[in-house]
Amino acid sequence: MAVRDWFPKYRQDVVLLAVDLVGTFVFAVEGALAGMYAGLDVFGLLVLSFVTALGGGTIRDLLIGAIPPNSIRDWRYGATAFAGGGAVFFFHPLIQRVPVHLMITLDAAGLALFAVAGVGKALEFGITPLLAIIMGAVTGAGGGTVRDVLLAQVPGVLHSDVYAAAALAGAAVVVMGLKLKMPRGVAMSLGAAACFVLRMVAAWRHWNLPRVVGS
């Protein structure tokens, strides 16, 4: 096989891995911060950083048949997650002064990165576009859901301002972009931007999905 035949696929794999690792670090920091505010020790911080960063991706991999999941098969994911947790532990005096709006921004960035990485991997495994979009949302919101359960809280995805819906929207943009024959990097960038902007605007405007109001 000529180099030109495998190089485009190699570049696609590198883009997907880079997006996945950046999202892993961002969510690991957020998970460790949640543990810090809950008064957990260093072990608790690292556990929360790991499950927040990799829980969604692990659930996705199990559902699409990517076994063993990347969080177990590839050491770079676990190392990145623990690096995020370690950064929070060692630099917590500085991180405690991080403004709330910056944390919301980081969360939106992590959600966007994971949503597009999740839908991209699902499509690589031959999952239909609709279910691949759902896998994108699972990747983005799954880790935070596991984190909240461990902290005995109602998962934020069930009541937060347009959270999972933003991941679904970003994943849908990726699928539509690929259907229109856009380069993979362009489609993923547009999807991440759509998810990020929708999540930020929803948090700013306090948008919520319709709710059932009991009598």
UniProtKB/TrEMBL annotation:
Q: How does it sit in the membrane?
A: Multi-pass membrane protein
Q: Which domain of life is it from?
A: Bacteria
Instruction: Please provide an example of a Pfam family that matches this protein in its UniProt record.
Output: Gly_transporter
What Gene Ontology cellular-component terms does the record carry?
plasma membrane
The main place the protein resides is: membrane
- Where in this chain does the entry annotate a coiled-coil region? none
> Where do the TM regions start and end?
14-37, 43-63, 101-123, 130-150, 162-180, 187-207
Q: Where in the cell is it found?
A: Cell membrane
Which residues does the UniProt record annotate as the domain Glycine transporter?
18-92, 105-176
Specify whether Transmembrane is a keyword of the entry.
yes
Alphabetical list of InterPro entries matching this protein: Gly_transporter
Keywords in alphabetical order:
Cell membrane, Membrane, Transmembrane, Transmembrane helix
Indicate the family of this protein. Belongs to the UPF0126 family.
- Descriptive protein name: Membrane protein YeiH
Q: What organism is the protein native to?
A: Tunturiibacter lichenicola
